[in-house]
Write a structure and sequence with these properties.
Elements lengths: L1 H14 L7 E4 L17 E11 L2 H25 L9 H19 L3 E14 L2 E15 H34 L3 H15 L16 H19 L1 E5 L2 H13 L3 E4 L5 H11 L3 E15 L2 E14 L5 E13 L2 H30 L2
Parallel strand pairs: 5-6, 5-7
Antiparallel strand pairs: 1-3, 2-4, 3-4, 7-8, 8-9
Helix pairs in contact: 2-3, 2-4, 4-5, 4-6, 5-6, 7-9
């Protein structure tokens, strides 16, 4: 037994103490306090970021710095947009505003200063060498004055935008007074576009229309009124096709008045006197066809033009052909005419709406 105990002791002495699995060294004897809690003061904001298991100190530092910047950008983005929580009128406007704030916040944190770096190196034996990994923490600082400067810049930009929108609104009123409802409509819509993303309480500098919210409401009401006036037309067409054309126009928000048998010149004069912007002239022909089982067929051809009532100029045109069937030749012709009339009305409505949007 004594010899066995000596043998075990000698074996243990020969093997020596067990080597550690990994050796950890740090950049300072004691981790900094900001690892546990990052604090800020009245003049400066602090943000921290971390990266574990980096293959090099430089890589870990860069990754931790990006993490700290991301934290800062998120916080600053909320801070500089907090006063504009009332701007969101549409999803498009909301997304645009968020993207703008995010972009500016990211640009701002690029100027943040590196305040401190702490790291720990973990070394493990691998064959005849070692493998090192780094856990890295960084601390960055940013003056609060930078956020205030961005807030003030946004306020000034908003005031200038709203002031420009007010000028555009007054241009629209002048166009409306001169009898050009289409030009007025385009300007009212421009006002609404300019006001997207602006806070309701942004001041205009005008005593009668003091805020962006008031201006927006006035522009919305005026645009709706102008659109109803712009989307009016006198339709010259045969009775058997006029209903289909006006039905298609009505579906797109147009009010159409039919004048069967009127001349083009008479319709233009009437439209001009009434302030109706468009005269739509329909030339239509039908052709009987053969029998289709127990029914008969027919075809219809339409040549349709939309005229500007102010000068008689053609602003849109379309040609449509369609076939129809019915129990009688008259019913077949009516079916063909209705199909062609709906198609022509849809085409003209789309063309006139496009002219509204393009600024004719």
């Amino acid at each position: 037994m004594k010899r066995a105990a000596v043998a075990v002791a000698l074996l243990a002495a020969a093997c020596g103490p067990e080597k550690p699995a990994a050796i950890r060294t740090s950049s300072s004897p004691k981790p900094p306090a900001w690892l546990a809690k990052t604090t800020s003061d009245s003049a400066t904001l602090y943000f921290s970021g971390a990266k574990e298991g980096s293959s090099s100190l430089e890589e870990g530092k860069d990754s931790a710095l990006e993490a700290a910047r991301s934290q800062a950008a998120q916080y600053i983005g909320v801070e500089i947009s907090a006063e504009h929580s009332d701007v969101m009128s549409t999803e498009e406007a909301e997304n645009k505003a968020k993207d703008t704030v995010k972009s500016r916040a990211n640009a701002m944190v690029r100027s943040a200063e590196l305040a401190d770096v702490y790291y720990e190196k973990i070394s493990r034996e691998a064959g005849s060498g070692t493998i090192d990994r780094f856990d890295v923490w960084v601390l960055i600082r940013l003056p609060r004055a930078e956020i205030e400067k961005e807030r003030e810049r946004q306020k000034q930009e908003a005031r200038e935008t709203v002031k420009a929108a007010l000028g555009r609104y007054r241009e629209a009123l002048a166009q409306q007074k001169a009898g050009d409802e289409l030009a007025a409509l385009i300007r009212f819509r421009d006002v609404l576009t300019q006001l997207k993303g602006q806070g309701q309480n942004v001041e205009t500098g005008d005593t009668a229309i003091a805020s962006a919210g008031k201006l927006k409401q006035l522009a919305q009401d005026a645009a709706a009124s102008s659109q109803s006036k712009v989307r009016r037309a006198i339709v010259i067409a045969p009775d058997w096709v006029a209903g289909a054309v006006t039905q298609a126009l009505s579906a797109k928000g147009f009010t159409a008045q039919t004048q069967t048998g009127a001349t083009e010149q008479a319709a233009l004069a009437a439209a001009k006197a009434q302030g109706t912007p468009w005269v739509i002239v329909v030339h239509a022909t039908t052709t009987p066809g053969g029998r289709v089982f127990a029914q008969v067929a027919a075809s219809a051809a339409l040549d349709v033009r939309a005229l500007d009532a102010r000068n008689g100029a053609v602003v849109a045109s379309t040609q449509k052909q369609a076939k129809g069937v019915g129990r009688t030749p008259e019913a077949a012709q009516q079916a063909a005419a209705s199909e062609a009339g709906l198609g022509a009305g849809n085409d003209l409505a789309a063309a006139l709406v496009a002219k509204e949007n393009s600024g004719l």
